[in-house]
Design brief:
There is one protein chain. This protein folds into four domains: about 190 residues, Multidrug efflux transporter AcrB transmembrane fold, CATH 1.20.1640; about 100 residues, Alpha-Beta Plaits (2-Layer Sandwich); about 180 residues, no CATH class; about 110 residues, Alpha-Beta Plaits (2-Layer Sandwich), CATH 3.30.70.120. It is about 65% helix and about 10% strand. It starts with a helix and ends with a helix. β8 and β9 form a beta hairpin. The mean pLDDT is about 85. It has about 700 residues and is α+β, with helices and mostly antiparallel strands. The protein is built from 22 helices and eleven strands. The longest helix has about 35 residues. The strands form three sheets. Strands 6, 7, 8, 9 and 10 form a five-stranded antiparallel β-sheet that branches. It has a four-stranded antiparallel β-sheet with strand order 2-3-1-4.
Length: about 700
C-alpha cells in the first residue's frame, strides 16, 4: 500500500468511526420526535389573526381553557329511558377522568328525540395527552350496543384522531420508506453490496437531523408538528439517496480512469460536490423562505426540512465518500469497474441513444413536450383549494367523523364548537341581536357568571371581564364546513359594524378562516421570493442569465402540469373534495426546489462538458452520462414521497402524490427531453451573456465551416 493510499485509508476509517459514534448518540432521537410535536391548529396561527386575539381573550373568561369532546348517542327509533340512564352514568364516569374539567353539563337531547349529546370539557393544558383523555372517554362509552351508536367527536375527538395518525410516523412511515429505498437501490445497482452504502448514509442523515430538530423543538426554538415530521422523514431519505446516487455514479465513472480508488474518489468528489452543494443549498434556501409565512405551521416546516437537508449534505459529502473509499472496487461487485480509460458514455448505451434522438429532433421534441405539459395545466381549473372539512381530512372512517355526522343530523351542526364574540358590555345586547340576524346562526347566548352546567337561566347576568362580554354563536353548519366559514365571515362583517363594539370573533371556524386567508397571503409573498432566490443561485452556478430563466420556466411549466394532473386525479379518481389551502404552497416549494435539483445535476455537467467539447456536444454528453442517475434519483424521490400515502390523512396523501408525480414528470419528460432539446436547439447562446457563449459560438462556427 502506497503512503498516500495508506493515509487516505486511515482518514476514511477515522471519518467512518466518528460518524458511527455520532449515529450512536443521535439515533435514539429519531424515535422521540413525536414527544416534542404539537398538533394544535390554533398554536400555528399568526399572532395578529382575529382568531388568535379571540383565543387570548378567552383566557380572561375562564379559569382554564378547554377543548370540548362531544359524546353523542344515537338511536334512530328514538332515545329510551335506558339510553338516558346510560348517558348520565357515562357522564359521571367522564368527570373522574384526569384532564376533564368539572362540573359537566347534563346530557342534551335533540329536538327529534333520536340523539343525546354530552359536552366534556378537556383541559387544553393536556396538550398531546388529549389523545389519552379521549381514549379513556371512548373506553368508558364501550362503543355501540343494542342499536345505540356512541361516538366521541368535537375538536378534542378530532385532535385525538390526528395524534393517532401522526403516531404512525415513527414506525410504519419510516419502515415503508426504508423498504422502498432498499428495493429501488437493489434494482438500480443489481449488487448485493452497493445498496448498503447509500442506505446507511441516508439513515445517518436522518439520525443527525432528528437530534437537532428534537433539541430545537424541545427548547421551543422551532415548532414541530406531525405534518412536518412526516415530510422530514421522506425528504431526508429521498434527497439523501439522490445525492448518494450522484456521488456513486461519478465515483464509478472515475474508477474507469484511475488505478487507485483514492484518486478516483478525489476526482469524483471535486466533480460531484459542487452540484450536490448547489442542489442542497437551493432546497435549503427555498425551504427557509417559508419563514416569511404568516402561519406558524409553515414557518415550522421551513427550518425542520432545511435542517434535514443540511444534515444530509454533510453526511453525503463526508461519511458516504469515506464508506465508498473503504469499499473500493469490490463494493460494485459483481460489476466491478476496471481502469480501462473508457468513455463514460459507453456505460450508458440507452442514454447515448436518447441523446442521439434529441440531436436529430431537438426542436420538435421540446415543442411537443411543452405542448403536452401545457395541456395538462388545464386541469388546474379542477383544483378547488379550500379548507378540508373534518369528514374530508381522513382517507378512512374515524370516530370523530362519525360523531360529527350524527351531530349534523340531529343538532345544530355547530353545537359544541360555537363562534365566540367578544364585545363591550354596553353594546353586548345590540351585538347579540345583530349576530342572531346573520343567516346561518342558530343561537346566540352570553357566557354567564355562574357555572356552565346547562342552558343559562332566563335573564342570567353575563360575565363581565375588563368591561367585555363573551357571546357564543352556535352555527347551523358543521364548524369546519364551507357553509360555516361563509357564515363566520358574514358574522364578522355584521358585528364589526356595530359602533363602539370593538368586536372580536374567534372559535374553531374562525381558526380555519384565518388559516385559509393566511395561506393565500403566503402564496403571493413566498412564491416570487423562492423564484428569485433560485434564479440567483442558478445564475451563479452556470455563470449565465439565459439558462437560469429557461430552466425556471421549464420547472414552472412542470409544476403547473403536475397540479393540473393532480387536480383531475384527486377529483375523479381519488374522490377528494379538493385540496387544503396550504397545499399549493407546499407543492410549489417541494416541486420547484427538488425540480431545480435535477436541472442542477444535468446542467452543471452539461456546462462542464461544454467547456471541453462545445455546447451542443456538451449537451449530448451531459445527457448521456447523467440521464441514468437522474432518472434513478427521480424514481427514488417519487417512491419515498409516495410512502406518505400510508398515513390516512388526505393532505399528506395529496402532497405525496403531487411530489411523486411531479418528480417523475421532471425526470422522464422535462430533464430527459425538454431541457436537453431546448439547450441543443439554442446552442452556445444558452450561456449568454457568459464567456462560454462566445467561445463555444466561435468553436461551433469553425466546426460548421
Amino acid at each position: 500500500m502506497s503512503g498516500r493510499g495508506g493515509r487516505a485509508t486511515l482518514i476514511a476509517v477515522a471519518v467512518v468511526l466518528v460518524w458511527l459514534v455520532i449515529g450512536g448518540v443521535a439515533g435514539p432521537y429519531a424515535g422521540r420526535l413525536s414527544e416534542v410535536a404539537t398538533n394544535d391548529n390554533a398554536a400555528f396561527l399568526p399572532t395578529d389573526a382575529e382568531a388568535t386575539r379571540a383565543q387570548d381573550l378567552t383566557g380572561d373568561f375562564v379559569d382554564r381553557q378547554t377543548i370540548p369532546a362531544l359524546v353523542v348517542y344515537e338511536r334512530p327509533s328514538g332515545i329510551t329511558d335506558a339510553d338516558r340512564q346510560r348517558a348520565s352514568a357515562d357522564a359521571a364516569r367522564f368527570a373522574q377522568v384526569p384532564g376533564v374539567l368539572t362540573p359537566l353539563p347534563p346530557p342534551i337531547p335533540s329536538q327529534d328525540g333520536q340523539a343525546l349529546q354530552v359536552v366534556v370539557p378537556v383541559d387544553d393544558a393536556e396538550g398531546e395527552e388529549i389523545g389519552s383523555v379521549v381514549k379513556q372517554l371512548r373506553d368508558i362509552t364501550g362503543g355501540d350496543r343494542d342499536g345505540l351508536t356512541v361516538d366521541v367527536a368535537g375538536p378534542a375527538g378530532l385532535l385525538a384522531d390526528l395524534i393517532e395518525v401522526f403516531a404512525a410516523i415513527d414506525g410504519p412511515l419510516l419502515l415503508v420508506t426504508l423498504v422502498v429505498v432498499l428495493i429501488i437501490l437493489l434494482v438500480v445497482y443489481r449488487s448485493p453490496v452497493l445498496w448498503i452504502f447509500p442506505l446507511l448514509a441516508a439513515g445517518m442523515s436522518y439520525a443527525l437531523a432528528s437530534v437537532f430538530v428534537y433539541l430545537l423543538a424541545d427548547a421551543d426554538v422551532i415548532k414541530l408538528n406531525g405534518q412536518a415530521q412526516g415530510i422530514l422523514t421522506v425528504l431526508v431519505f429521498g434527497a439523501g439517496t439522490d445525492y448518494a446516487l450522484l456521488m456513486i455514479a461519478r465515483y464509478r465513472e472515475e474508477l474507469h480512469r484511475h488505478d487507485r480508488p483514492w484518486d478516483a474518489m478525489r476526482t469524483a468528489w471535486k466533480g460531484a460536490a459542487p452540484a450536490i452543494i448547489a442542489s442542497g443549498g437551493t432546497v435549503i434556501v427555498s425551504l427557509l423562505c417559508l419563514l416569511l409565512s404568516s402561519l406558524n405551521s409553515n414557518r415550522a416546516l421551513g427550518p425542520v426540512a432545511a435542517i434535514g437537508i443540511a444534515g444530509t449534505l454533510l453526511v453525503m459529502l463526508t461519511f458516504l465518500p469515506a464508506l465508498l473509499l473503504l469499499g473500493g472496487r469490490w463494493a460494485f461487485w459483481p460489476r466491478r469497474p476496471r481502469e480501462d480509460q473508457a468513455d463514460p458514455r459507453v456505460e450508458h448505451g440507452i442514454w447515448s441513444r436518447v441523446a442521439g434522438f434529441v440531436a436529430r429532433h431537438a426542436r420538435p421534441i421540446w415543442l411537443s413536450t411543452a405542448v403536452v405539459l401545457a395541456i395538462l395545466t388545464l386541469g388546474l381549473t379542477q383544483l378547488g383549494a379550500t379548507t378540508l372539512g373534518q369528514s374530508d381530512l381522513f382517507t378512512q372512517r374515524t370516530d370523530s367523523v362519525d360523531g360529527q355526522e350524527v351531530i349534523t343530523r340531529h343538532f345544530p351542526a355547530g353545537t359544541g364548537s360555537p363562534a365566540t364574540i367578544f364585545t363591550t358590555e354596553q353594546t353586548a345586547r345590540q351585538v347579540a341581536q345583530v349576530a342572531q340576524g346573520v343567516p346561518g346562526v342558530a343561537e346566540v347566548r352570553p357566557l354567564t357568571a355562574g357555572p356552565q352546567t346547562g342552558p343559562p337561566e332566563e335573564n342570567a347576568a353575563p360575565k363581565v371581564v375588563d368591561g367585555r362580554v363573551q357571546l357564543e354563536a352556535t352555527l347551523t353548519d358543521p364548524p369546519d364546513s364551507d357553509g360555516a366559514e361563509r357564515t363566520l365571515r358574514e358574522l364578522r362583517v355584521a358585528v364589526h359594524q356595530v359602533p363602539g363594539a370593538d368586536a372580536v370573533v374567534g372559535g374553531f371556524t374562525a381558526i380555519n378562516v384565518d388559516t385559509s386567508d393566511a395561506a393565500k397571503r403566503d402564496q403571493n409573498v413566498i412564491i416570487p421570493v423562492v423564484l428569485v432566490v433560485i434564479a440567483v443561485i442558478l445564475a451563479l452556478l452556470l455563470r449565465a442569465l439565459l439558462a437560469p430563466v429557461l430552466l425556471i420556466a421549464t420547472v414552472l411549466l412542470s409544476f403547473a402540469a403536475t397540479l393540473g394532473l393532480c387536480a383531475l386525479l384527486f377529483r375523479h379518481v381519488f374522490g377528494f373534495p379538493g385540496v387544503d389551502s396550504a397545499f399549493p404552497l407546499f407543492a410549489f416549494v417541494f416541486l420547484v426546489a427538488l425540480g431545480i435539483d435535477y436541472n442542477i445535476f444535468l446542467m452543471s455537467r452539461v456546462r462542464e462538458e461544454s467547456v471541453k467539447r462545445g455546447t451542443r456536444a456538451g449537451v449530448l454528453a451531459g445527457l448521456a452520462v447523467t440521464g441514468g442517475v437522474i432518472t434513478s434519483a427521480g424514481i427514488v424521490l417519487a417512491a419515498t414521497f409516495s410512502a406518505l400515502a400510508v398515513l390516512p390523512l388526505v393532505v399528506l396523501v395529496e402532497l405525496g402524490t403531487a411530489v411523486a408525480l411531479g418528480v417523475l414528470i421532471d425526470t422522464i419528460i422535462v430533464r430527459s427531453l425538454l431541457v436537453p432539446a431546448l439547450a441543443y436547439d439554442i446552442g452556445p447562446k444558452i450561456w449568454w451573456p457568459g464567456r462560454l457563449s462566445r467561445a463555444n459560438g466561435e468553436r461551433e462556427a469553425r466546426d460548421a465551416g
